[in-house]
Amino acid sequence: MDSTISGLPEGWEVRRSNTKNLPYYFHPETKDSRWEPPAGTDSERLKQYMAEHHSSKSASGAFSGGAAGNKIRCAHLLVKHKDSRRPASWRESKITRTKEEAGQLINNYHDLIKKHEQGDPEGRSLSELATTESDCSSARKGGDLGFFGQGDMQKEFEDAAFHLEKGEISGVVSTASGLHLIERLD
Questions:
Q1: Nearest CA to 176 among 75, 35, 30, 31?
Q2: Considering the entire predicted model, what is its pTM?
Q3: 42 with 48: CB under 8 angstroms?
Q4: Contact by Cβ (8 Å): 148, 76
Q5: pLDDT per residue over 122-164, tens digit each?
Q6: Contacts for 165-168 with beta carbons within 8 Å, 24 or more apart?
Q7: Counting beta carbons within 10 angstroms of the beta carbon of residue 122, is it exposed (0 to 12), middle (13 to 18) or buried (19 or more)?
Q8: How far apart are CA 60 and CA 65, in angstroms?
Q9: 79 exposure class (CB count in 10 Å sphere: 0-12, 13-18, 19+)
Q10: Where are the beta strands (DSSP E) in the chain?
């Protein structure tokens, strides 16, 4: 995002919260995120940018997803690590595992999902695993994130999700939030 257009200081961007469906401000380099605009923001420019790109009236805005047909529905399983954007979850108030340890966990979950797909009784579906193992609040819905369009999710997540066929499960996807397995539902 061009900070001269948005009014945000260099390096900051506007993203949308998956849980609250509200815009927030994120700096990918520092992994700092906040609900309020960062210091140094040109508030008039930001107000205009938000009205043009992030209002519910903006059918072509970055978070509107364009036409309804451009939206997809996915579920995911998230494993956070100590370097995640917010290293806490409904499961653990402070996540201390390393990214490597998170990688081992999510690879084990991926193996269980593959076993499930092959009919192995020891396997488990992504939805089953997400319900008990995901560090995202979507766990209570089996990892279901609902419908979203282009620009609604973190870029790495979105790129992977939009390349999946219905019913397909991604490999491990790394974002500022942690490590994900994504299943395309619709």
A1: 31
A2: 0.64
A3: no
A4: no
A5: 999 999 999 999 999 898 899 999 888 888 899 999 999 999 9
A6: none
A7: exposed
A8: 7
A9: buried
A10: 13-16, 23-27, 32-34, 72-79, 144-148, 173-175, 178-184
Find all residues with CB under 8 Å of 96, minimum gap 6, and list them.
Answer: 82, 87
Instruction: Using alpha carbons only, give the angle 135, 66, 6 rounded to the nearest 5 degrees.
Output: 75
Active site residues: 76, 136, 154, 177, 180
Quote the pLDDT of residue 126.
96
Q: Which two tokens stand for residue 55?
A: 């209002």
């260099």: which residue's tokens? 10
DSSP code per residue over 129-149: HHHHH-SSGGGGGTTEEEEE-
- The domains of the chain, with CATH numbers, are 3-53 (2.20.70.10), 68-184 (3.10.50.40)
At residue 80's C-alpha, the angle toward residues 78 and 83, to 5°, is 145
C-alpha–C-alpha distance, residues 53 and 47, integer Å: 10
Q: What gap in Å lies between CA 89 and CA 21, rounded to an integer?
A: 18
Confidence of residue 67 (pLDDT cuts 50, 70, 90): very low
The residue that leads in pLDDT, 124 or 46, is 124
